[in-house]
Amino acid sequence: MSLDSFIKPNPKKAPGSSVPALPSHQSAADFQSDDLLGNPTFSWEALEFEKIEKHPRWYWIMGIALLAIIGYALITNAILMAITFILIGMLGYIHAERDPRVIEIEINQKGIIVDGYMYAYDDIKSFWIYYEVEERIKILSLHSKKTFLPFVHIPVGDANPIQIRELLLNFIPEIRQELTIIDRMERMIGL
After folding, report:
1. Domain ranges of the chain
2. Shortest CA distance to 162 belongs to which of 119, 129, 125?
3. What is the spatial distance between Cα 11 and Cα 156, in angstroms, rounded to a whole number?
4. Which sign does the torsion angle of CA 163, 166, 167, 168 carry?
5. 15-29, 47-61, 89-103, 172-186 — which is least confidently predicted?
6. pLDDT level of residue 190 (50, 70, 90 thresholds)
7. Can you give the pLDDT at residue 50?
8. Under a CB-based contact definition with an 8 Å cutoff, are residues 107 and 96 in contact?
9. Which of 24-38, 44-58, 109-123: highest mean pLDDT?
């Protein structure tokens, strides 16, 4: 695959929705290179996370679990623990109710730019694309050389994962990764 075949979709708003529609990707005839830098790029837009509608029962279960932990903290006279879990509950509720932003992702010859932040190829060990249709998982995972942020998960959205893979193979190796237990639990409880 040559570096001249990349796409720059146009963002659109979904009619009657507060969340912008994700772009649909066209055929290879619509691919273009970035004229400003002279570097070919592949770019797309995706929601920063998948919004999962939560049933009121979800809020009751999480609230009861949180109250149980706070109650335990108060019984054991761990006031700091109680305050911490109250704050965790408040932040968790705010996060659960938040709508995802549409972020821009771009792959070019120097690295991967996610919402304005550059991940240079020199700082990336490998990549893997999680694509599980049954679980609605489409994630580009970068294995970083950094100690404190070893894996960066980037949403693929409606972009073609095969094109992303073919392009990244020109710059970094593909090494199989597995979703961690925390990633699976996060999806299971709907965060």
Report:
1. 12-50+104-189, 56-97
2. 129
3. 15
4. positive
5. 15-29
6. low
7. 76
8. no
9. 109-123
Query: Which are the contacts of 50, defined by CB distance < 8 A and separation ≥ 6?
Result: 100, 136, 155
Exposed e or buried b for every residue in 98-131, given b needs 16+ CB within 10 A? eeeebbebbbbeebbbbeeeebebeebeebbbbe
Burial label for 168, CB within 10 Å (0-12, 13-18, 19+), is buried
Give the residue-averaged pLDDT of 95-120: 88
Between the CA atoms of 149, 155, 159 and 160, what dihedral angle is there, to the nearest 10 degrees?
60
In terms of Cα–Cα distance, which of 172, 169, 137, 174 is closest to 153?
137
Signed CA dihedral, 5, 102, 136, 108: sign only? positive
Strands 111-114, 137-144: parallel, antiparallel or unpaired by DSSP?
unpaired
d(CA 164, CA 1): 11
What own/partner pairs with CB < 8 Å and gap ≥ 24 does 110-113 have? 110/39, 112/142, 112/154
**pLDDT (tens digit per residue) in 60-103:** 888 999 999 999 999 999 999 999 999 999 998 888 888 888 98
Collapsing DSSP states into helix, strand and coil, what is residue 58?
helix
Query: For residue 93, which phi and psi values (nearest 5 degrees)?
Result: -65, -45
What share of the chain in percent tops pLDDT 70? 74
